[in-house]
Amino acid sequence: MTSEFFFRKLKITVLVLCAYCVLLSSCALVTPAKQVSKEQDKVAKQEQKMEKTQNLLTKNSEEKSNEVSSLAFGIKYSLDQTTNAPVYVKTATDLNDRVISIVGSPRLDEIQKIKGMVDLLNSQVLDERKKGETVLAKKDKEIVEIQKQSETLSAKYDIQIKQLTEQNKALAKADDSKQATLNEMSGFMGLKAVAWGLKRFFISCITYLIVFAILFIIVSVLENTNPAFKAIMSLVNMAFGALIAPLKLIAPGSFSFCNLVHVNEKNKYKETLTEIVNVIQKLKENQKVAPDKTYPLSEVLDTLSSTLDKKYEDVVEEILKEEKWK
Prior knowledge:
Elements: H1 3-30, H2 38-79, H3 87-103, H4 108-121, H5 126-185, H6 191-222, H7 227-250, H8 253-257, H9 263-289, H10 297-307, H11 310-322
Helix pairs in contact: 1-6, 2-3, 2-4, 2-5, 4-5, 9-10, 9-11
């Protein structure tokens, strides 16, 4: 690859990139994309987390209420079995009835379970009481688990509230900063915003062009030494072919302006020149075999005329007309 060809290809690449940067920026100015604040997204996600934690806390509170109502019913069931109960037992029963009225009656399945446990604990048979103690120990584990879950969820909810507060502060700060920027850009009838946008546009374009140019030079240098880079360059050529095609459709004259030709046109002249060179080279080889023999110009022209196909003759005729020989 010659340096002239390399720099010419690089120049064309840069021009195409510049053209598409302008087109894309124009489209962005006409239909700006919807901007969503990252801070607002964080706040929304944090609120969703808090809602899930709140639901878990509500569920945990319901489980605690169910345990309280179940145990209160068990207490009432055990006290009601007392015959000739003294007054303090009646007082305990009356107070327990108030507890049940506050937390509500347990479900039917819980009622059956608590009755079974109380019957085992109040049994006169030692083995039955041991079974009741085992059931009560299992109930204790369930209560402890609910209490631990409540503490964990409460601590988690407090942390989430703190995080949400910090995020709201950051959001308010970001909004203040945006408002300050908007107020500043509104100066000079909005011309400051135009200047800021042009500055951002040119900085972005230059950055992309520099990065692409560096990568392009590296790939172009290593293209002929490594098959992987050659494959990458083929993909780059395909990609830029797709980019150039719309430009050719919109402005066909841009190809001639950039000294570009279609591959069919190039092949047409290349094949014609190749045929002419082959004919002349064959005559030169024949002259080496017979040095004394000479080939007048008419014979050379006749040989070319008899060798060249019709399409190659048409190319020669076209060149002769362009050069005003005919």
